[in-house]
Amino acid sequence: MYSLLLAIIYVAFVSLGLPDSLVGAGWPVMQRDLGVPVAYAGIITMIIAAGTIVSSLASERLTRRLGAGVVTALSVGLTAAALIGFSLSGSFWVLCLWAVPYGLGAGAVDAALNNYVALHYAARHMSWLHGCWGLGASISPFVMSHAITSGAGWPSAYLTIGLAQVVLTAVLLVSLPLWGRVNPVGARHTTTTDDDDERAREQPGHVPLVRALRIPGVRLVLVAFFAYCALESTSILWASTFLVTARDVAPATAAAFASLFLLGITAGRFLTGFVADRIGDRWLIRGGFATVGAAVVMLLVPLESDVLALAGLVVAGLGCAPVYPAIIHSTPVNFGRSSSQAIIGIQMAAAYTGSTLAPPAFGALSAWTGLWVLPLFLAVLAALGLVMSERLNRLVARRALAGEPVTA
Asked: When comparing pLDDT for 134 and 173, which is higher?
């Protein structure tokens, strides 16, 4: 049961990544066919982001009422319907309508799946599962490219991914009996104590947003998660432009190394999985932010050769790799099993907020200062994430020594 459900969850994480890069990959053709300005892509992505934030915040109530398996299946089904709707859309405003279920499905499944894995599986699986997300996000641009070059058009790519999501929905529905049979303690190798499990039994039911925010340390982890996701999304969007504008790197070379940032994240998560259980979540977060700091220094060194700066971008991707899964996986330990779903839902909302707001914020800043400021912007975010996570570690340690409960 353990292995079969785990295999299904791995496939689900690949599926999570599939829709994430479709809009960006297909937009140059989509905006031409739809007759709208290039900038309208921002409207689509903002609607999707708003939906993910709303559904992330609602995920705790939904998951407690329906169960993680049902929420995952329904969310993937909602995303599948939205993707098929995209494939049938002949106007921009119809795309905007379908973007609503697109975002709602993505946020709920992300929070539900991440919490389920954090509760039931070891840290290595969290790293590998998020590597699978990167694999899915890397596959869909090739699907879009093939659809365009074959003459089928961009709707074909959305239809293909949508039908794949339909198949996954059917698999998830069939697997529902498995979701309650995984041992939530024995299958997971973490420092969760018997006291944590006892507190979870003593505090059943819905954890309201206000109560979750009052739990000591929650605001710290939200800021850390916001900072990390802001760092990642800003790097993805602006790294290539920085290399071309600030370092005079050839556009083709800059594009290749900007893609290596994403490949570094994906490869880093697969590699991290082999040592995650031995190193532990705290050191993975600490080492990840520190590695990003080293990468920033590599980007800042004013050498005539661009080799160090290009390598710095790859190192930044490797540094980013363990942070997201480790923050998620440590949530039940830091805040208790009974509150983890609520807090992970809020963390997802913070993640999407950071990913949505930071890239345009840097764009506005760079218009005033110049793109050379990108490494400093990333350094501030990395330092903020590291400081907040270290403050959380000290708070958790003091609470453990004092024997205080992990929930408010």
From this structure: 173
